[in-house]
Design brief:
The complex is a heterodimer. Chain A is an all-alpha fold. Chain A is built from 13 helices and no strands. The longest helix of chain A is centred in the middle third of the chain and has 37 residues. By secondary structure, chain B is an alpha/beta fold. Chain B is globular, with a radius of gyration of 21 Å. In chain B, helix 3 crosses helix 4, helix 4 crosses helix 6 and helix 6 runs parallel beside helix 7. Chain B has eleven helices and 13 strands. In chain B, the strands form two sheets. In chain B, strands 7-8-9-3-10-11-13-12 form an eight-stranded mixed beta sheet, with helices on both faces. In chain B, strands 1, 2, 4, 5 and 6 form a five-stranded antiparallel beta sheet that branches. Chain B starts with 6 loop residues before the first strand and ends in a 25-residue tail after the last strand. The chains are: A mainly alpha, B alpha/beta. At the A-B interface, helix 10 and helix 11 of A face helix 2, helix 3 and helix 6 of B.
Chain lengths: 310, 342
């Protein structure tokens, strides 16, 4: 082991700080705007604080992967004596069948899996919000046509769509994978946004804004979109866990991240052949996925409660 | 010299083309507002008074439509002929609207200062800083204490009365020629109501603004307006000086409204009510639209739709009693009493 242990202090401190020290202050409850109030409500939820700390720590670990991981992700340690070794003091989570350190691969895999989750969801939310906002705001025939298109797209299972498209590619680059997952994930959001935009268009403050001379763009950007951010943020948070699962599934099927590059899905695939003999290869990336997905779901639920006190 | 009125509405018809039929919410309304005048527009819910107010700024959305043949002129300029850009330049600038519900008429995610400043940014192209200064000035004008502090607060942090003051500030930023106040005090406590009305009257005197005061409350009219237009079932049924209306209302509907108003110093066992409700706008009754609730109605009222009769200079009434005044001596129970609307 190298002086790696020192670097591990960083993510541990992040978890501790967020879940223990960042307790809600006892400031007067009405001394802030709606976002700060929501933040305070979120902070009161202990489970959500821990889950958020886990997420932040995961991203810190991913960012610091080269420092934190004991070995490079694709380094073979000793092809003769060290293949398929169970967890030990030298290899905390064991080694895989080509003598690579599983812990190091999981840490490096986090970079791929977590950034695909984040970027794909960012893409989905942007496209979905714009599409839904236009449909809901313009209304009429435009809206009807746009929504029928969404209905058609939603009628095809996402995983089927992804498998169909990825099967056409020989080797899929990471940006292409992000684009693919992102561009198949915005239909639901656009529906939510469209409904919210329509509902808000008849709200009195929107009519009031129009009565004061605000044009369509201003009404949409200032008076409608800021008021529908809450459901979009919640959908985005829950969307990240969804995308991580999707990426895992695709990589496991050999359609996503390509070996030897490590992603959580591809590590599970590495261990799949010998799972009865070397269970640690598939189990630990699986646990990483479960933990991450749970954390995102808990945070998503807490955000839903915090942002919509009704 | 006969100057042109500030606002002139002629034969305004705003129809809603719904699946249940055409709702003729506003059906041939005409009236003028002079410069600096407060005109009261009064009637029950559903009589079309708010739709009239919204029509002036062309804020009617589909399925609603202002029908061809309607005319709305501001300072002689035909508002119905303006394109979108030009009508937006009127809204909030030369004509503003004050809403009934001060909570829901403010955007919950912005500070009130921000929202007042927005009006200056739209119409005067003011910089962020200048607009903010103007906003604080306006909040001072409408009597909000600590305006520089309060400008940083969000709508939910203010009381109903303060929020209504903010809305008035927003309406006044550009010093408009006309304010349309749609039930500005209905959602407020009685004590706050009086303060807001006083504020409006005071600002009007200082700024010379005309006000179209839309309300169902004759008490508010008595306090604020000089002239009053009574609407029923999408039509103007009586127009008179406030004094005249209170002393000698002609139309039986206006008479009923006055009788239903509680007054200090008058001993009465019960308040009278006008039987029935406003009929649905998709099916106004034939003849006089008030005939089924009217204590004087006779055959002619079922057959013949009454025109606006001239009663005296500046006093009109849409009632056949103008033709046959002797019938007023013989009231009777209304012909048809509708139990429930629709």
């Amino acid at each position: 082991m190298r002086p790696v242990a020192v670097a591990w202090v960083v993510p541990v401190l992040v978890i501790a700080a967020l879940s223990l020290l960042a307790r809600p202050s006892s400031a007067p409850p009405d001394a802030a705007g709606p976002w700060r109030m929501a933040f305070r409500r979120f902070g009161r939820n202990r489970g959500a604080r821990v889950a958020l700390a886990v997420i932040v720590a995961l991203y810190v670990i991913a960012a610091l992967a080269p420092i934190l991981a004991p070995y490079p992700p694709n380094a073979t340690i000793d092809m003769i004596r060290m293949t398929g070794r169970p967890p030990s003091m030298t290899n905390l989570l064991g080694t895989d069948l080509t003598s690579r350190d599983v812990l190091s691969r999981i840490i490096h895999g986090a970079r791929i899996s977590l950034s695909i989750g984040l970027l794909a969801v960012l893409l989905s939310m942007t496209v979905g919000t714009l599409y839904g906002a236009v449909a809901g705001f313009v209304g009429g025939v435009t809206d009807t046509v746009m929504m029928r298109i969404i209905d058609a797209l939603l009628s095809v299972p996402r995983i089927l769509m992804l498998i169909a498209v990825t099967a056409l590619w020989d080797r899929l680059s990471l940006p292409a994978l992000v684009m693919l997952i992102g561009l198949t994930g915005w239909f639901g959001v656009s529906r939510i946004v469209r409904g919210q935009v329509m509902a808000l268009s008849t709200r009195e403050f929107v009519i009031a804004a129009r009565s004061l001379g605000a044009g369509g763009g201003r009404v949409l950007a200032r008076h409608i979109l800021p008021n529908i951010l809450s459901p979009v943020i919640v959908a985005a948070t829950l969307g990240v866990s969804n995308v991580i699962i999707l990426e895992t599934g695709l990589s496991y099927l050999g359609l996503g991240v390509q070996p030897p590059q490590a992603s959580w899905g591809s590590i599970i695939l590495d261990g799949a052949e010998g799972v009865s003999a070397a269970w640690w290869i598939s189990l630990f990336p699986g646990l990483a996925i479960v933990m991450t997905v749970m954390a995102f779901n808990i945070v998503g639920d807490a955000l839903r409660d915090a942002l919509d006190p009704r | 010299m006969t100057s042109i009125p500030l606002l002139s509405i002629a034969n305004l018809r705003t129809y809603f083309h719904t699946s249940a039929g055409i709702a003729r919410a506003v059906d041939g309304v005409s009236f003028d507002i002079a410069r600096g005048e407060t005109l009261g527009l009064v009637g029950e819910s559903g009589c079309g008074k708010s739709v009239t107010g919204f029509s002036i700024l062309r804020l009617i959305r589909p399925p609603g439509r202002i029908e061809a043949g309607s005319a709305i002129a501001l300072d002689g300029e035909d508002l119905l002929a303006l394109d979108d850009e030009h009508i937006r330049a009127i809204r909030g600038n030369r004509v503003s609207l004050i809403f009934q519900e001060p909570m829901t008429a403010l955007n919950p995610v912005f500070t009130v200062g921000d929202q007042v400043a927005e009006v200056a940014r739209i119409h005067a192209g003011a910089s962020r800083k200048d607009a903010w200064t103007r906003a604080v000035e306006m909040l001072t004008l409408v009597g909000i204490p600590d305006p520089a502090e309060r400008a940083h607060e969000y709508p939910h942090q203010l009381s109903g009365g303060m929020r209504q003051r903010v809305l008035i500030a927003m309406a006044l930023v550009m010093n408009p020629a006309l304010i349309i106040a749609d039930e500005p005090t209905t959602a407020l406590d009685v004590t706050i109501q009086a303060q807001i009305l006083e504020l409006l009257a005071d600002l009007q005197q200082r700024l010379g603004t005309s006000i179209l005061l839309i309300t169902h409350d004759l008490g508010v009219i008595a306090e604020m307006a000089s002239r009053v237009v009574v609407m029923y079932a999408g039509e103007v049924v009586e127009e008179a000086a406030v004094r005249t209306l209170f002393a000698s209302a002609h139309h039986p509907y206006a008479e009923g409204l006055l009788a239903a108003m509680p007054r200090v110093g008058r001993v009465r066992e019960r308040l009278t009510v006008i039987p029935g409700t406003v009929p649905p706008p998709t099916a106004w009754p034939p003849g006089c639209r008030f005939h089924d609730r009217c204590p004087y109605a006779w055959e002619r009222c079922l057959r013949e739709h009454p025109p606006l009769y001239d009663i005296a200079p500046g006093h009109t009434s849409r009632c056949h009693l103008a033709d046959e005044p002797e019938r007023r001596a013989h009231p009777h129970p209304p012909l048809v009493v509708r139990d429930a609307p629709g």
